[in-house]
Fold this protein.
Amino acid sequence: MRTVSRWFQRNLIRIYAVIAFTYLLIPVGYTVAFSFNDGGRSNLIWKGFTFDNWMNPCGAPEVCTALSNSIKIGFLATLFSTILGTMIAFAIGRHKFRGRSTTNLLIFLPMATPEIVLGASMLSLFLTLKINPGFWPTVIAHVMFCISFVVVTVKARIASLDPRLEQAAMDLYANEVETFRRVTLPLVAPGIAGAALLAFSLSFDDFIITNFNSGTMTTFPKFVYVSAARGIPPQANVIGSAMFIIALAVVILGQIVGRKRAVK
Amino acid sequence: MSGISSARGDLRIDHVSKSYGDFTAVNDLSLTIPEGSFFALLGPSGCGKTTTLRMVAGLEEPTKGTISLGNTDITFTKPYQRPINTVFQNYALFPHLTIFENIAFGLRRRGIKDVKEQVEKALDLVELSHLSSRKPTQLSGGQQQRIALARAIVNRPALLLLDEPLGALDLKLRRQMQIELKWIQKEVGLTFVHVTHDQEEAMTMADTIAVMNEGEIEQLGSPADLYDNPKTAFVANFLGQSNLIKGTITGNDGDNHVVELFGQKISLAKNRSHAVDNSILAGIRPEKFRISRLATPTSGNILSGGKIEDVSYIGVSTQYQVLMPWGQELMVFEQNDDGVAPFNVGEDVNISWEAGFTFALRGDEDAEAGTEVNPEEIIEDDE
């Protein structure tokens, strides 16, 4: 009896970890498993194992159009929000100017505002400006809410940067531009890369704001939402699983590269 | 060569002041640092020494005054235009670059294509050639310190600034690096300007020391000058320890003053007095004192009526606190080199010293100035 309780004590954290990870990963496991379901158009009940869905990921109508829209929007939103957000982060993190604290506060505002409100007001703004909802309004809306996250992420990295490194660069004959290019940027780069990944996943994932501003254009989340009424086709699971695997691969690759660099 | 000044020569700091709002960090400082010397700026935290160094490096702009190198005014030029390099307090090695690239950084920025030979020479000088492909984080503190030095020296600057370069190292390594730095300075023949709060470090390495306090220079001279003949109570107490006794000049005897210290007459060389009138603080270093039992004959200056208050045996020497009749405790260091039995607490003794070791400060000075500084507490920089 005592040995059992002692074993329990010693392994408590492990048991807790297993339970927590199970809870976190069950939906992912479910998604991956049902991407192999021979379920036909509605993918709710397990009917048998098949590779067909993976062989033919664009099999369901519209799914690949929606996916390619999402990727295009995600790419553009990431590009613009990362560039603009990084510039804002440097301005706030490195320079003193009038209205800096106000800017800091305003940057947080989109993150604190309910998406449903943001989406609706963006739509009314576009309509007032006589711009029809569609691809570009969606991109603009995505850039708007991604910027805040980029600023916050990059700013944290800048704050952790020792200003003496830049002084050392200047001391070693690097002018302002060279100091930024050779020292500041490489050191802040991991933060910028992290911010870009975050921006992409936020944009790719977004449903509420997209739904208001995309008009008749479908994105992947919109596609899944609409088809949920009739049963989501297994191709959605295939794409979801593939996204998960790609993301996992990126993270693992990053770890390996990071470790190799440290060892070198 | 993108606009880097090729100025060489003495560094001249001319009536330079630096204020931050109401706070004056450096106050009307004038200083000439001769080319090829090892110069130390010594002072406690907040005395303005780091600010002075940063103005020379170009990282701060003076509020007033000019800084020039040889005949070139560099007061407002950018750091990257000055032929001056710095070894930063925490080394500031670039963490994303290898040791080789760290050292090559300055050469590459000056447009030098073939850096390999010079970088390898610099690595050789600090004896770390085998680490050239490592990253800074994989090096120990002492190794990082040497790389920071190599990164600066490789550029052969007209002036090398060292900002508390040994502050983060442990005592043993610090001693070793002190000797090494001095050797390297001789080897490369560059002008070194060294900022430190550690008087021992300054005295070990520098040819000339400027002692700074509250934004001004208290005294400038060779280590021996400053130690043997300090001009102010701050210098007397900050560099080593001093016994400062209130007294009055009562007469003259050839080249000497006759000084009365609480009723006892001693002799003071006139050229060792920095007093402005008859009221003085007579100064004697603790190791200059000799203690003797009442019966023992003594020569030189003598103060009688002492009583041993405390004895601390510390190996090479024994430290005594001797209570004098006027209530002051004097500090005495006796070498443990002869057969005389150590004195015991409570013994009545006389104190004597060679008259020539006496120095004198202005009588209105605070005898405690500079004593309250604990170097271990102020390792962090004083920007």
